[in-house]
Specification:
Catalyzes the removal of elemental sulfur atoms from cysteine to produce alanine. Seems to participate in the biosynthesis of the nitrogenase metalloclusters by providing the inorganic sulfur required for the Fe-S core formation. The chain has 405 residues and is of the alpha/beta class. It contains 14 helices and 15 strands. A hairpin with a 6-residue loop joins strand 13 and strand 14. 48% of the residues are buried. It binds pyridoxal-5'-phosphate.
């Protein structure tokens, strides 16, 4: 098997070779500034506008509704801070407990950023990661400035009912932002049919480079820039454009539109084969997230009584790249906020791993993981005092044998 067997596409994706190819001229001959008056710069400016058109077409948006940013995180911050500045008297934000840190940590630190006290409602999710529309509707008040809810979850792939949520917000006169970083390119999005005010996307999650993002701002939605400087992006985001990355993102969006079908058939079938195979061959394994309201490329499975981090280290020896639902950066091995919000039991939350595929994955790779992963889990359980005491009647040590403590 050629290493790496890359199944961590929700963390970042391979830049498509076709994308690299269209970018290269902007790192050599075509180095003009797109804002320049001369023909040399003008042709670069035209390439930027051509890319904008391709991205708009994938989203069902108007090209002039797109603002290029440096990443998904900047897009998220820009949308939320803009709404709060547009309606300074409204100090309530509705979001969810499972947002990406780009939204979650921003909302949790708004008081510090704006000097105002904000009331934040972080909506709970069901045990399958789905959202209760009734609870959402009840959470909205006259004080609510903005709703920010992700289109699809990066850890589980679970999809929120964004169309319904946006319609409810609109009927109440509340701005609506969606972090669609994981959704764009994987599931159809048509902004001419969904009354969203702001949408964030990021290039590196759909086979474009890192360091390029887009914020969609609906025509007519009040907007306050985040980065103030030159007149670029019609004064909505200062700073000379990352031309090569923009051109690459345009190409990536064009390819995503053409590959959407494959993503939802071949890639989905590979994901299902992988998921069904693991669940069937490994005892005490459970799927995290709704079975069908989910991205076609993502599976998140818990293996009880083992540590996700330990699984990843073993997979890494085979060149298999995956991701775990626990973050051991703090040394505490806390299950992720998403697993906690879903109420995944403690014994399972620690052993969750995410496998996220792309159009570059093959059936041979899926078979390889299906061959290598089950023995890894069995081996780790042999060493787990908790598993031993549950399944072999032995008394386990009370000490946690975390892999990274
Ligand atoms: C990756 C990701 C982001 C952040 O995007 P960057 O371009 O890395 O800043 C935001 N939201 C979600 C859901 C993501 O998966």
């Amino acid at each position: 098997m050629n290493a790496p067997v890359y199944m961590d596409n929700n963390a970042t994706t391979r830049v498509a070779p076709e994308v690299v190819e269209v970018m290269l001229p902007y790192y050599s001959d075509l180095y003009g500034n797109p804002s320049s008056m001369h023909t040399f710069g003008g042709q670069v400016g035209r390439a930027v506008e051509e890319a904008r058109g391709k991205i708009a077409s994938l989203l069902g948006a108007r090209p002039d509704e797109l603002i290029f940013t440096s990443c998904g995180t900047e897009s998220d911050s820009t949308a939320i801070l803009s709404a709060l500045q547009s309606f300074p008297e409204k100090r309530h934000i509705v979001t969810t407990r499972v947002e990406h840190p780009a939204v979650k940590n921003l909302c949790e630190s708004l008081d510090k950023l704006t000097g105002h006290k904000h009331k934040i409602t972080q909506l709970p999710v069901n045990s399958d990661g789905t959202l209760d529309l009734g609870l959402y509707e009840e959470s909205l008040t006259d004080e609510t400035a903005i709703v920010s809810a992700m289109w699809a979850n990066n850890e589980t792939g679970v999809i929120f009912p964004i169309k319904e949520m946006a319609e409810i917000a609109k009927s109440r006169g509340i701005l609506f932002h969606t972090d669609a970083v994981q959704a764009v390119g994987k599931i159809p999005i048509n902004l001419s049919q969904v009354p969203i005010d702001f949408l964030s996307l990021s290039g590196h999650k759909l086979h474009a480079p890192k360091g390029i993002g887009v914020l969609y701002v609906r025509k007519g939605t009040p907007f306050v820039p985040f980065i103030i400087g030159g007149h670029q992006e019609h004064g909505r985001r200062g700073g000379t454009e990352n031309v090569a990355a923009i051109v690459g993102l345009g190409k990536a969006c064009e390819m995503a539109a053409n590959q959407m079908q494959e993503e939802n058939t071949r890639v989905k079938a590979l994901r299902d084969k992988l998921e069904d195979g693991l669940l069937a061959s490994i005892p005490s394994s459970l799927l995290n997230g709704h079975k069908t309201l989910r991205l076609p490329n993502t599976t998140n499975i818990s293996f009880e009584y083992v540590e996700g981090e330990a699984i990843l280290l073993h997979l890494d020896r085979f060149g298999i790249c995956a991701s775990s639902g626990s973050a051991c950066t703090s040394g505490s091995l806390e299950p992720s906020h998403v697993m906690r919000a879903m109420g995944v039991p403690f014994t399972a939350a620690h052993g969750s791993i995410r496998l996220s595929l792309s159009v570059y994955n093959t059936e041979a790779e899926v078979d390889f993981v299906l061959e290598k992963l089950p023995p890894v889990i069995a081996q780790l359980r042999e060493m787990s005092p908790f598993w031993q005491s549950e399944h072999k009647g032995k008394v386990g040590s009370s000490q946690c044998k975390c892999s990274c403590s």
